[in-house]
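Letters spell out the chain; backbone shape is given numerically. Take this protein:
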Amino acid sequence: MNSVVTQELTRYNGLIKTIRSSLNDLKLAIKGEVLLSSELEVALKQIRQGYVPELWLAKSYPSLKSLGSYIKDLADRLDFFQKWIDTKGQFPKFYWINKFFFTQGFMTGALQNYARAKELPIDKLALDFEVIHDEDRVEVPAEGILVKGMNMEGFKWNAATQLLAESDPKILFSDCPMMWFKPVLEVDFKHEGVYKAPLYRTMERKGTLATTGHSTNFVLKVSLPTDIAPSHWTKRGAAMICSLTD
């Protein structure tokens, strides 16, 4: 996890550097002190229209938010990591999965911690999932991680039955409760009585393979208990989202 947070900070520092330098160049260009390049001109137009400049998105995590919401989201992400750093090596009680720049790397880090502790090959492990019933009294697990920050689209979690349920009328998205992502041997993973909900970083349900071999948008499938056939949720397009539009 120390490697994960170091990589995250490197990526965020690169993004902040791009934002600061481009805004400074724009200020100088508006004053007429430097040349307004075609790249800066496009960025200025997009900012005036309330869009996140493509210049920033090239160095950014995936986001479909408008400019104002993007800045607020970025500030929240940086605040999460700043609090993590301020604890001087202590890991958070739970992790906001929607704050990570490279979500797949965070998942891999959680598996690596378990693999090294148990001296198991990481390719034999998988993540199992358990919904936390009482978030206020939950204890930090000895194995795995507690995760928050996901949204459900096309379904909701029924706390009374501890099963998936239909969404409430006129409610497009519902908050996902805290979950325990616990590493298990792949042979022990449960495949029956669950719906494997795809988890995406944004609402754009597509992505391309990066050089790391991971999708730029798809993270993993989260298994949730259901008493309805999984095909029912598949036909509804039920999925989980880390970051909504606004």
